[in-house]
Amino acid sequence: xxxxxxxxxxxxxxxxxxxxxxxxxxxxxxxxxxxxxxxxxxxxxxxxxxxxxxxxxxxxxxxxxxxxxxxxxxxxxxxxxxxxxxxxxxxxxxxxxxxxxxxxxxxxxxxxxxxxxxxxxxxxxxxxxxxxxxxxxxxxxxxxxxxxxxxxxxxxxxxxxxxxxxxxxxxxxxxxxxxxxxxxxxxxxxxxxxxxxxxxxxxxxxxxxxxxxxxxxxxxxxxxxxxxxxxxxxxxxxxxxxxxxxxxxxxxxxxxxxxxxxxxxxxxxxxxxxxxxxxxxxxxxxxxxxxxxxxxxxxxxxxxxxxxxxxxxxxxxxxxxxxxxxxxxxxxxxxxxxxxxxxxxxxxxxxxxxxxxxxxxxxxxxxxxxxxxxxxxxxxxxxxx
Length: 385
Fold this sequence. Notes:
single chain; 15 strands; alpha+beta; 7-stranded mixed beta sheet; 13 helices
């Protein structure tokens, strides 16, 4: 092989170790509040440094219970009961404060760190926060590195991320971020209407859950059978509790036939559960994701490349191949399950209200949709939040 080819394969192997959502789907992770008088026991599991080692770290954990602020201290354990992640948080006005953010050495530490950061963003959104501030003086190095990929930046000795809960135009998003920048005494970021998809995708990840509708980022509607939506999203809910507590993995792969339907990356996906036992009302859009990659290849090649990202077996990937013997893999991430699924009846109504052409054929296979329809569906799915 040429040196560049070797480098490419080494990078793919490294990424396979960084992202192991399939392992998480089969591991019994549990989350619970830190019990009183157990703080000393946690010292051995989480790396300490500087003046935060040993008893000082335990004492700082205990101080979060004595404070007048209602701190939430959460400990995540793996299937063997070993502590693997620890965080504390509280809402201060419109800011979610995180004074402790630690991950322990573990085969899935990088995946756990990424999921933990996304969990903090989801909690911040639920609490109505407009920014997250990690004030831990010695966060885990893995968590700190992952935070940089998620839009966190250094500010006043901590790490800060903006939560821009706007699904709207460039001007609407910019108005919110500008106000937050002034509050932090930072220079506001200027956005351009119609910005390229690649730029918009970076902005939407950094300022999640922001969605910039008048950018070049395309939107797609993807039908998915309940069997697979249950595996990937826990919708419909499984009869038995799922073993992992951080929700669905940040990155997954979904397989389909190789016929092109205008797919392009980066993009946004809406997931439409395409069938169910209760008639039309069981057919609904249940969430959205960010589309990161589209690849067409033989089932064996796709399975070898993406096995570590999915919940599918080789037989299911083979079943997705068409007459040409090739299948398509959609790699997506940061899935949001809507608090209020959007029924087929409501989806049809929204399309008609927007004056968009619509038919049931649009739901047979993956199809590109107007940004206006994505916006209407997304807002409908979050109408109670």
